[in-house]
């Protein structure tokens, strides 16, 4: 092989390597989002009070407001793409949207296939009691021999059954067991801390929030496709800024009546 041919081959290799570097850099999600000027956000759009259609048909809710605030910090516009929960992770992996902002709990299983932002909200299992009930159940242990209402198939169903001695009653959904609780057919009910204020308010039943339950806590983050370190840094910087300037606390107080930007236990 002549020196000229070797030089040409080496030149080609360097060009390919350089193009590969440029391509890899351009492929970071942050570059794509910045060039597009739009952050594509996947969510259900049917999950009040997190993301749902208001009377005017527009999306609203806690997660919608968080997503708008994050997009603003990135200097781009939000574009919401609604999809069913069953396909939302697959949609993210297929590139139909850049992130999911839909109460996605950070779990080791999900972290194996997706990257996550730092948590923007913390949830926990919490008891619901009647307003006129003077008893104060401080834990699931206090409910041994008592009737506890939960949604069938929920995480809280499993949590309640993990404590022997509780008479766990399962229901299709929250409206049914909240009615039974108000009518004294249950001693307490169990649901997500972030849902409680909304459920109690919309049910218009004489109920109150009870104690937080240990073992039911979870951190909620923003997932995106792996291999985007610049985007990951930008998202975390945006959320840190929203925590420091009080935006996340303000939004959680507005939607839930409590600060959900900090861990509960």
TrEMBL record:
| Signal is among the record's keywords | yes
One CC-aspect GO term: membrane
Instruction: Recite the UniProt keywords alphabetically.
Output: Signal
Among the Pfam families in the record, one is SBP_bac_3
Signal peptide from the UniProt entry: 1-26
In terms of InterPro entries, this protein maps to:
Iontro_rcpt_C, SBP_3_CS, Solute-binding_3/MltF_N
- Residues forming the Solute-binding protein family 3/N-terminal domain are 38-259
According to its UniProt record, where is this protein located? Answer: Cell envelope
The residues covered by the Ionotropic glutamate receptor C-terminal domain are 38-258
Q: Does the keyword Membrane apply?
A: no
Q: Which family does it belong to?
A: Belongs to the bacterial solute-binding protein 3 family.
Protein name in UniProt: Cysteine ABC transporter substrate-binding protein
Q: Which organism is it from?
A: Pandoraea thiooxydans
